[in-house]
Amino acid sequence: MKALIGLLLLVFGRGVSSVLHSLHYCYTASSGLSTFPEFVAVGMVDGVQMLHYDSNSRRTVLKQDWMEQVIRDHPDYLERSNGLSWGSQQAFKANIGILKKIFKQTGGIHVYQEMYGCEWDDEDGTTDGYDQFGYDGEDFIALDLNTLTWVAPVLQAVSTKQRWDGDRGYNEQQNNYYTKECVDWLKKYLVYGRRTLQRTERPRVSLLQRSPSSPVVCHATGFYPDRVVVFWRRDGQELHEQVDPGEVLPNHDGTFQVSVDLDLTAVPQEDWGRYECVVQLRGIKDISTPLDPALIRTNWAKGIIIIIGLLVLLLAAAAAAVVGVLLYKKRNASDKRHKPVGSDTSSENTEGQNPAPEVQPLTTVKVKS
What we know:
alpha+beta, 8-stranded antiparallel sheet, 6-stranded mixed sheet, disordered N terminus
C-alpha cells in the first residue's frame, strides 16, 4: 500500500531547524499465514518502537526502558493498552472476513492494515493527524480530517465510506483524538524518552567507489535522529541531476545510515574539485566533504591485487602440472629402458584389469526455497 508505507518513510527537506515529531501506530491482521500472528499492533515515537502486541502473546510488551516510568505514572496503562489491542484484534479478524467477501476471495494470503497517528512541529506548534486503512497492499479507505469524511479510493470501499460518513459523532471523536489527545501523548512520550528520542549523534561521512567507472557514493552513518539531509553540490549549488539519493536505513545500534550516489561519467577528474557532499543534521554544524580522490575509499585496487595473486597461483599450478607430466614421461621411458628383454608383461595386464575408480562429477547444489 503505497500511501500507507509512505507514512513510515522519511520525508526529505532542506529545513532542519525544526523537528516534526510523530506518534504512529500500525495494526496488521492477516489470514493464511501460519507462521505469523493473526494480529500485530506496534507503537512508535519518532520512528522508535516503544510497544508491541500480538495475538499469540495477547499482552503489550514495552520496547524502551523509559516506558517503565510511563507505567509508574499511569498504573492502568498496560491494562488499558491490552484491552484496546484485544478489541482491535477481534474487530480486525471480523473485518478481514468481510473484506474477503467484498473482494470475492475464498482462500490465499490476505493482509488488512490500519496506520494512524499524529505529528507535531516543535517550532511552530502545528499538528496533523491521519487514519488510513489498506487491504492486500493497496489503499482501502482514509479519514479526511478537514471535512471529517472518509475517502474511498476503490469501488469496494464505497459502502463502508457511506456507513462511516453517517456516524458524525464518531468522526468528531476521531478529530478530537488526532488533534488533541494523540498530540498530548506524543509530547509526554518525548519528555519520558528525551535522553533517547531527543539526543543528537554526529554522522560519520565517507566517500566510496566500487570501481573507476562506478558512481561516487557519499555515505553517512551513525547519526540520530533520522531526519538528516544529504546532498551533492557543484560550485556551491545543489545538484538535482547526476545524483541518486537512497533511503534512510536503520543500523543495529539504533542509529541510521543513508547514501547518495554521484554519477561522474561525463566529468573529467580535473573538475572533481568543484564537487562536495554536504550533510545537515539539526544541532551540528554542516559537514562538507570535498570530492578528493585521496578521500575516496575503494575496493577495486584490492580486487586487482587479489586477481594478480590468483593468476600467480594458476600459473604456478600450471607450471607444476607441466613439470609433473615431464617427470612422468621421463620415468616411464626410463622404466622401459631398464625392463629385461622378454620379461613377463602380466603385471601390466593386471593393472589394466583394475583401473582407478572413475571420478564422479560434483553434485549440483539446489537452491533452497
